[in-house]
Write a structure and sequence with these properties.
- The chain is flat and about 70 Å long.
- It is mainly α.
- The model has no long low-confidence stretch (mean pLDDT 85).
- It contains eleven helices and no strands.
- It is 76% helix and 0% strand.
- The longest helix is centred in the last third of the chain and has 39 residues, at 184-222.
Amino acid sequence: SPRSNQDAPMTEQRVPVEDRTRFLERKELKIARALSLIGLVLLWELLARVGWVPRLFLPAPSAVVGEAVEMVASGELFRYLGSSLLRLALGFAIGALAGIVVGMAVGFSSLAEAVVMPVIAATFPIPKIALLPLLILWLGIGEPPKVAVIALGVFFPMAINSFTGVRNADPLLARAAVSFGAGRWSVIRKVMLPSALPMIFAGLKLGAGTALLLLVAAEMIGAESGIGFLILHAQNIMETTKLMVGIVVLSLLGVFSHWFLTWLERVAIPWKHT
């Protein structure tokens, strides 16, 4: 009957809606990354073998690997690499620690910001390698000026990123912590510092690349050891294959530092990657 039809419950029909945010998803695509690198190496090998580029200007990857194996067997590569790693580790550690401390202090204190930020803004654009002659004059010939120029290059991105991370922290979280009885240092440790960690790790990655650039430049100007010295010496005597070994080692150092910092970021900030 018409009345029974009206009393019958109406069933809802759900229409599937297309997910328009799918393009925002980040995929690993590890196979594509590996294939792109393998393709580049194969193209490099092909260009060297067919003779389109003279081997003096671009030695084949197989020749570079062979030269690297010989340098490893003789211990020559480890001597160059050991000097560079020591300078890199000391300069990066000093610059990163100082940058984090200064950046967070400036972020917390209005007085520190008024005093320090103009100095950072005035000195940040100066090419750090241009300061190496002054550093040699002040610190003497040896390891201190090379470590200092690397530390300076790392300090500025770390200070700026740490300051930005502190200032971008959610003030509502800080007020909520204070309302629950948290003290000043507790708010800094449990609210402000975790909020600044993503920017701090971004500064660490940027500082790692800058440290490698300044390392090579410093070793080319005032050193008798290290990967930069190896590249410069190989260029002077036209040993292109050994020069390419140094460049490949630098590239691997950059890749490994990025992977290590990415892993450390996942461990320190698990909520960002969930």
